[in-house]
Amino acid sequence: MKTQTDLAHVYEVYIRTTPQKLWQALTDGKTSKEYFYGGTLTSDWKVGSSMDLVDTEAGRTMLVNKILEIDPPRKLVHTFSAQQDDEHKKDRPSRVTWLIEPLGDVVKLTVTHDDFDGETVTYHGVKSGWGPVLSGLKTILETGKALNIPMPD
Amino acid sequence: MDEVFKALADATRRLLLDRLFKKDGQTLMELDRGLSMTRFGTMKHLRILENAGLVITRKTGRFKRHFLNPVPIQRLHDRWVSKYALPWASALSGLKTHMEGIE
């Protein structure tokens, strides 16, 4: 499978927390509801398992993901398939890598979204999507309060 | 956050961010195209954006690629814009959460 190295998005955020607490927030469906567009991340957190994001109130699956690599509390790699419409569903799954590095009393979180099948709908669509999620994750970890930012179209 | 405001207080740097939003992962050569300044000037602007956390660089082969990191702008939005100009949708969603919390 050919991967075009420039077809990627890279995000960084520094969070005043510990890798363990960040990992907990990342892998706990109850917490994901507070920062991931109200979605609940559900998984048994094993390689090969699904890790879908579901709006449990609306009974709607937002993301269909599969875990490729998991190394708590340091690294999580999963496939990513947005489900909001047929155009997104048509794209083959891309890949998201979460990297957690402690730096003194903060944690550096790097999220790389790559392995897109060209400049797909998903490639352009996620551009406005990750900012609120990562900022929300920072806020919830640093203040314990959620932001409630609506999902972009 | 001062660094982010300073980095954004320049038309060329805002243009560079817009170019990266349109096409992420560009090289200096691509970003420099059509700008009325020397490559050194563009490099300087990119370094300021990088120091403010708005641009992330990755070396792939012999190319250094630039990626837009929107998180600092999102933080700025969450802290400043949403406070003074909260859109109705989020205001109502916040009200909903609040009311449901009371029940």
Explain the overall architecture:
Chain A is of the alpha+beta class and 153 residues long. Chain A is 26% helix and 33% strand. Chain A contains 5 helices and 8 strands. Chain A has helices at 19-27, 29-35, 86-90, 121-125, 130-143; strands at residues 9-15, 40-42, 52-55, 60-64, 67-71, 75-82, 94-103, 106-114. In chain A, strands 1, 2, 3, 4, 5, 6, 7 and 8 form an 8-stranded antiparallel sheet that branches. In chain A, a hairpin with a 3-residue loop joins β5 and β6 (75-82). Chain A is globular. Chain B has 103 residues and is mainly alpha-helical. The longest helix of chain B has 15 residues, at 88-102. The model of chain B has no long low-confidence stretch (mean pLDDT 88). Chain B has a two-stranded antiparallel ribbon. Chain B is built from 6 helices and 2 strands; from the N terminus they run ααααββαα. Chain B has 2 domains: 1-69, Winged helix-like DNA-binding domain superfamily/Winged helix DNA-binding domain (Arc Repressor Mutant, subunit A, Orthogonal Bundle), CATH 1.10.10.10; 70-103. Chain B is elongated and about 60 Å long. Helix content of chain B is 64%, strand content 12%. In chain B, β1 (55-60) and β2 form a beta hairpin. Chain A binds chain B through residues 5-13, 127-128, 130-132, 134-135, 138-139, 146-150, and chain B through 21, 24-26, 53, 56, 58, 60-61, 65, 67-71, 73-75, 78, 82, 89-90, 93-94, 97.
